[in-house]
Design brief:
The complex is a heterodimer of chains A (about 475) and B (about 400). By secondary structure, chain A is an all-alpha fold. In chain A, about 70% of the residues lie in helices and about 0% in strands. Chain B has about 400 residues and is mainly alpha-helical. Classes of the chains: A mainly alpha (about 475), B mainly alpha (about 400).
C-alpha cells in the first residue's frame, strides 16, 4: 500500500505507472476513492457476521495509515492538511461512534505513538538504548492514579489529598515534570555507560520501578501493591458532549445504547490526538534545533562530539528528561482512560514493544515511528485478536479450508494467535534488524549509516530538500 | 582473556595469584588443583565478607521487629544461607560464563542467553518426563539419569546458541553496536513464545513440573548439624555444586588447555589477526556460542531440578542476575564470571535470609538490591572486580 505513494520514480519497470499516479489530480482521485472505499467498508461491517474479524482486519489498517498516504501524495500542502484533519478529526470519531472498538483501538494507537515518539528521542535521536522506558509512563500513570482514585484507602486518601476529576488537565504538566525528574535521576548515574551496558541498567531501572509499585503497599499503602489502584479519576465531560454524541448517532441512524461511555471515549480520543499533535510538533522542533544536532553528534560519535564542544552531560540528561516527559504526560492520560492502574501494565514486554515500534518504523524519523506504532499496535490489538476470533467463528460453523482440506476445528485451541504476541514481535525485531535495519520509513541519514558508510556532505545538504531526498529513497528501497 | 595490560591493582598479590590462571606447570596443578583451590578461596572469601556485613547490620539494627533479634537469627540461619547461596551461585556462574564468553569474543551482550538457559531446563524436563511416562525412570541409576539429561541439555542448548548466532547475529556483525542487541531481544522474545507454543500443543500446559515424585533420591534430604542448628541439605544442592564444579573445571581445561580453546582466546584478542594466522574465525565464534550455550543448558537442568517446576518465562530473572554476575566479575573474564556468580548467589541468599526480618522490606526487595548492585558496579567500577581496563576507541 505504501509503495504506491513513494514519490519520484527514477527507474524500475513500473516507472510509468508511478509517474502516472504522481499526477496531482490522479493522486487526489485515488486518495478520495481510497478513503471512501475503506470508510464505507468500516461503516457497513456488522459484528454478527461470521467473517467480521477478517473484513475488519482488512479494512481498518489501510484506513489508519491513510494519513501517511495523504502525506506523501503530490497534493498541495493545504489540501493534504485538510484531508488528514478530515480523517483524524471527523471520519475516525464517526467510525468510533458506529463501533466503539475502533475508537478504543485508535486511542491506544495514539497513546503508543506518543510513547514511541518519546522513546525515539532517547534511542533514535541521542542513540541511548533505553529498555526501561515504560517506567516513566508508570510514573505519570501512578501520579494521577494516586491522587485521584476513590476506591482504595491509601496514604493519599487518608491524608485527604484526593483531587477532583477536572484536575486531570493540571496533572498532565505534573506528570511531565515528575517523569522528567525521574528521567534525570536515572540519567545522572548512567551517563558514563556505553550502549549495551546502558541498555541493561535501564532495564534494571524499569524493573525496579515495577517492583516498587508492586511492593509499596507496606508499611504505608502508596500504590496498593499488586492489586493496583482502581476508580481513577476522569476529566469531567463538557455539558454538550452527551447530547451531541446522541444527535450524531441519531443522524447516522444507529441506536447508541449507552451514550455516556461513548462520549467519554470520544473525549479521551481528542485529548490523545491533541497530546500526540503537541508531541509531534515538539519532537520535530527538537530534531531541527541545535539540541537535536547535538544529539545526532553524540549518537554518531561521542568522543568527536565532545571534542567539538557538545556539552555531553547536559545533552544526555536532556534527552532522558524530554523522552521521559512525553511518557509522563501520556501516562496521566492512560491512567484516566483505563481508570485502573496496576504494576503489570508496566512490564518489560511493554518497553520492548515500544522499542519494536521505533525499530519497525525507523529509528530517528518521526513519521516512521508513528507508522511503527500503528503497525505494532494493530498487530497486537487488532490483527492477532481478530485472527483468533476468526478461527473461533469458523470453528463454530465447522468450516473446512478448501484445497488443503483442513477442517478448522482441528486447529489446536492452545494456539490462539492473540496469545503469541511475543513470538510475532520477536520475529518482527529479528527480521527488521536483518533485512530492513533502517525501518519501514527510514530517515535518510540513518539509512546511510545502516548501509555502512558515512553520508557525504553534499548528500546531506541535498537531504534538506525533501523532493531530492525522496529521489534517493526508491532507488535503494530494497537494499535495506 | 586479557585484552590490554592489566591495571595495577591496589589489591594484594594473593588476589593477583587467584585471578590469573597459571600458564605453565604440571597438568594436574593447572587444570585440577588450581581451579579447585580458586573456587574454595572464592567461597570462603565471599562467605567471610558477607557474614561480617550481616553481623554489622545486626549491630545497627539489633531488633528490627519486636522480640526478634537479628544476630540470633543470622547465627541460626548461617549454614543454610551459605549452602543455598553456594548452590544457586554456581548456577549463576555457569550462566554468567555464557554471557562472558560471548562478550569476550564478540563484544556483544547475548540477551537471548536467558532463553538458552530456559531451553536447557525444558530439555531436561522432556527427557525425565518421557522416561517417567514410559515408567522406567525408577530403574535408572541417578547418576546416569543426571548425566544423560544434563548432557542432552548441554548439546541441545549449545546447538540452539549456534543456530541463533548463525541466523540472527552473524548477518549483523558489522552493523552498529545496538543493532545485534535489538536482534537478540527479538530472539529472546521469539524463543519464549516458541517454546510455550510447542509445550502448550504437545502437553496442554506450559508449566513443566519435573517428575520428582518418582525420584525418591531427589526428595530425601540429609540432615547435617552445625552446632545447635541442623540444616536439611537437599540432594539438588549437592547435584548443583558437584555438577557445576565438574563443568567449570572442564571449561577451564577447554579454554586454557586445548588447541580449540587457544583459538577462541586468539579470536577474542584480535579477530583480524587471528584470521590472518589461519584460525577459522567463524568456526571459533560458533564454538564459543556452543560452549556458552552448553553451560547455560546444564545450568537450566540443575535450576529446574532445584525449582521443581519451570516455565518458558523462567529465564529472565536468573538471566539478568547472571548478567549482573558477569559484569560484577568483569565481563569477558572467565574467572570473573565464577567469582561474580558466587557473589551474587551468596548475596541473594543472605539478603533473602536477612530482609525477612525488616518489616518495611521483605524478600520482594532482593531483586532490587541485586539490580542496585549492578548499577553501582557499572558506575564505580565498570570493568568489574577482575576486569581489565578497555580503553574507548577513538
Amino acid at each position: 500500500m505504501m509503495n504506491t505513494s513513494i514519490p519520484a520514480p527514477t527507474s524500475g519497470t513500473n516507472g510509468s505507472l508511478r509517474q502516472w499516479i504522481r499526477q496531482p489530480r490522479i493522486a487526489g482521485v485515488f486518495i478520495l476513492a481510497y478513503l471512501v472505499v475503506f470508510a464505507t467498508i468500516l461503516f457497513k461491517l456488522d459484528r454478527a457476521n461470521t467473517l467480521f474479524p477478517l473484513w475488519s482486519s482488512l479494512a481498518f489498517p489501510p484506513f489508519v495509515i491513510s494519513p501517511f498516504i495523504i502525506f506523501s501524495s503530490p497534493l498541495s500542502r493545504r489540501i493534504k492538511a485538510g484531508l488528514i484533519l478530515l480523517v483524524v478529526l471527523i471520519l475516525m470519531p464517526l467510525i468510533g461512534i458506529y463501533d466503539g472498538g475502533y475508537l478504543e483501538l485508535s486511542i491506544q494507537i495514539a497513546i503508543f505513538s506518543a510513547l514511541a515518539l518519546g522513546l525515539n528521542i532517547v534511542v533514535g535521536f541521542a542513540g541511548l538504548l533505553d529498555l526501561g522506558y515504560i517506567a516513566f509512563f508508570a510514573v505519570g500513570a501512578y501520579i494521577w492514579a494516586m491522587f485521584s482514585e476513590t476506591n482504595v484507602t491509601t496514604v493519599w486518601s487518608v491524608a485527604g489529598l484526593i483531587v477532583p476529576g477536572w484536575a486531570f488537565y493540571l496533572f498532565i504538566p505534573v506528570g511531565v515534570f515528575a517523569a522528567a525528574l525521574v528521567g534525570m535521576l536515572l540519567g545522572l548515574p548512567v551517563l558514563r555507560l556505553r550502549g549495551d551496558y546502558l541498555a541493561i541498567v535501564t532495564l534494571g531501572f524499569g524493573e525496579m520501578i515495577r517492583v516498587l509499585a508492586r511492593n509499596l503497599d507496606q508499611p504505608y499503602n502508596l500504590t496498593n501493591g499488586t492489586q493496583g489502584l482502581s476508580g481513577v479519576g476522569r476529566p469531567p465531560l463538557p455539558g454538550f458532549a452527551v447530547p451531541l454524541t446522541a444527535n450524531i448517532g441519531q443522524a447516522m441512524g444507529i441506536q447508541i445504547s449507552n451514550v455516556e461511555p461513548v462520549s467519554q471515549q470520544l473525549l479521551f480520543y481528542f485529548i490523545a490526538i491533541i497530546l500526540l499533535a503537541l508531541i509531534i510538533v515538539i519532537a520535530q522542533r527538537l530534531d531541527n534545533s541545535p539540541i537535536g544536532r547535538a544529539w545526532t553528534a553524540i549518537r554518531e560519535d561521542e568522543v568527536a562530539a565532545v571534542a567539538m564542544g557538545v556539552p555531553l552531560v547536559r545533552m544526555k540528561l536532556l534527552a532522558f528528561a524530554s523522552g521521559a516527559a512525553f511518557a509522563g504526560a501520556i501516562g496521566v492520560l492512560f491512567a484516566a482512560k483505563n481508570s485502573f492502574v496496576s504494576p503489570e501494565s508496566f512490564s518489560l514486554d511493554q518497553s520492548i514493544s515500544i522499542l519494536a515500534m521505533v525499530i519497525v518504523g525507523g529509528l530517528g524519523g518521526i513519521r516512521g515511528v508513528i507508522l511503527g506504532a500503528i503497525v505494532v499496535q494493530l498487530l497486537n490489538l487488532q490483527i492477532l485478536v481478530n485472527f483468533s476470533l476468526q478461527i473461533n467463528a469458523l470453528k463454530n460453523i465447522d468450516y473446512v479450508i478448501p484445497i488443503i482440506n483442513f477442517p478448522i476445528r482441528n486447529w489446536p485451541p492452545q494456539l490462539e494467535p492473540a496469545k503469541y504476541q511475543r513470538l510475532v514481535f520477536g520475529l518482527l525485531l529479528i527480521l527488521m534488524t536483518i533485512f530492513r535495519p533502517a525501518g519501514l520509513l527510514p530517515e535518510p541519514r540513518r539509512k546511510m549509516e545502516m548501509r555502512g558508510r558515512a553520508p557525504e556532505p553534499d548528500e546531506l545538504a541535498r537531504l534538506e530538500e525533501p523532493a531530492i531526498a525522496a529521489e534517493i529513497d526508491p532507488k535503494h528501497a530494497n537494499e535495506g | 582473556m586479557q585484552l590490554t595490560e592489566r591495571r595495577k591493582s591496589s589489591l594484594s598479590a594473593l588476589v593477583e595469584w587467584f585471578s590469573t590462571p597459571p600458564v605453565t606447570g604440571n597438568w594436574f596443578y593447572r587444570f585440577l588443583i588450581y581451579p579447585l583451590l580458586q573456587i574454595i578461596v572464592f567461597i570462603v572469601g565471599i562467605t567471610l565478607v558477607l557474614t561480617v556485613i550481616a553481623y554489622l547490620l545486626s549491630v545497627l539494627f539489633p531488633e528490627p521487629r519486636p522480640n526478634i533479634f537479628l544476630a540470633t537469627q543470622i547465627s541460626r540461619q548461617l549454614p543454610g544461607m551459605i549452602i543455598s547461596g553456594i548452590s544457586i551461585g554456581f548456577v549463576y556462574a555457569m550462566v554468567a560464563l555464557g554471557y562472558t564468553l560471548v562478550y569476550g569474543v564478540l563484544n556483544f551482550i547475548n540477551f537471548a542467553h536467558s532463553e538458552i538457559f530456559m531451553f536447557g531446563g525444558v530439555i531436561g524436563f522432556e527427557i525425565m518426563k518421557r522416561l517417567d511416562d514410559a515408567g522406567v525412570i525408577q530403574g535408572w541409576n541417578p547418576i546416569l539419569l543426571l548425566v544423560v539429561s544434563v548432557g542432552a541439555a548441554m548439546i541441545g542448548s549449545g546447538l540452539l546458541a549456534v543456530l541463533m548466532e548463525r541466523i540472527a547475529y552473524r548477518p549483523l556483525r558489522n552493523a552498529p553496536r545496538l543493532v545485534p542487541l535489538i536482534s537478540a531481544i527479538g530472539v529472546s522474545f521469539f524463543m519464549i513464545d516458541f517454546i510455550r507454543a510447542i509445550e502448550a500443543v504437545t502437553r496442554n500446559d506450559f508449566n513443566l513440573t519435573y517428575p520428582k515424585t518418582d525420584l525418591p533420591w531427589l526428595t530425601t534430604t540429609f540432615p547435617v548439624s552445625f552446632g545447635q542448628t541442623t540444616v536439611q541439605i537437599k540432594p539438588t544442592s549437592i547435584i548443583m555444586v558437584v555438577g557445576a564444579v565438574i563443568t567449570l573445571i572442564a571449561l577451564n581445561w577447554f579454554v586454557n588447555g586445548t588447541k580449540l580453546g587457544r583459538g577462541i582466546r586468539a579470536v577474542s584478542q584480535d579477530q583480524l589477526t587471528a584470521g590472518l594466522m589461519g584460525i577459522n574465525v567463524n568456526l571459533m565464534i560458533s564454538l564459543t556460542f556452543f560452549v556458552g550455550g552448553a553451560f547455560g543448558g546444564a545450568a537450566g537442568v540443575l535450576f529446574g531440578l532445584n525449582a521443581g517446576t519451570i516455565t518458558p518465562y523462567i529465564g529472565f530473572t536468573p538471566g539478568i542476575k547472571a548478567f549482573t554476575a558477569a559484569v560484577l566479575g568483569g565481563i569477558g573474564n572467565v574467572t570473573g564470571a565464577l567469582l561474580g556468580g558466587l557473589t551474587i548467589g551468596m548475596l541473594e541468599s543472605y539478603l533473602n535470609g536477612v530482609l525477612v526480618y525488616f518489616p518495611a522490606l521483605g524478600q520482594n526487595y532482593t531483586d532490587i538490591f541485586v539490580f542496585a548492585i549492578l548499577i553501582l558496579v557499572l558506575i564505580f567500577r565498570p570493568t568489574g572486580i577482575l576486569g581489565e581496563r578497555v580503553d574507548e576507541k577513538v
